[in-house]
């Protein structure tokens, strides 16, 4: 059972490395306040109002969004660490 688990983990690591190493379309940049001012001037108000209204119906919305953003960041950092160790 343990050997099968190690094979699965190794396969996942290899697949992640393969897909990440073939990604040549990486964009370097950061989103900041006012980023969408020219394209959609009201986007920050729309998102804020949406989150506020969802928070009234489901109080876990802000924490879920925070968890989503934190998880997204952690996944990117983890992949970068893997690539540095392997490459």
Automatic annotation (TrEMBL):
Q: Does the keyword Oxidoreductase apply?
A: yes
Report the co-factor binding details.
Answer: Binds 2 calcium ions per subunit.
Signal sequence range: 1-29
User: What does the record give as the organism's lineage?
Assistant: Eukaryota, Viridiplantae, Streptophyta, Embryophyta, Tracheophyta
Say which domain of life the source belongs to.
Eukaryota
Molecular functions per Gene Ontology: heme binding; lactoperoxidase activity; metal ion binding
UniProt name for this protein: peroxidase
Q: Site (Transition state stabilizer): which residue positions?
A: 67
Which organism is the protein's source?
Solanum bulbocastanum
């Amino acid at each position: 059972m343990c050997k099968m688990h190690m094979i699965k983990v190794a396969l996942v690591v290899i697949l992640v490395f393969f897909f990440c190493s073939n990604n040549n379309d990486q964009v370097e940049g950061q989103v900041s306040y006012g980023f969408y001012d020219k394209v959609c001037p009201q986007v920050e108000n729309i998102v804020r109002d949406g989150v506020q209204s969802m928070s009234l119906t489901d109080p876990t919305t802000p924490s879920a969004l925070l968890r989503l953003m934190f998880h997204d960041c952690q996944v990117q950092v983890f992949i970068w660490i893997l690539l540095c160790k392997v490459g």
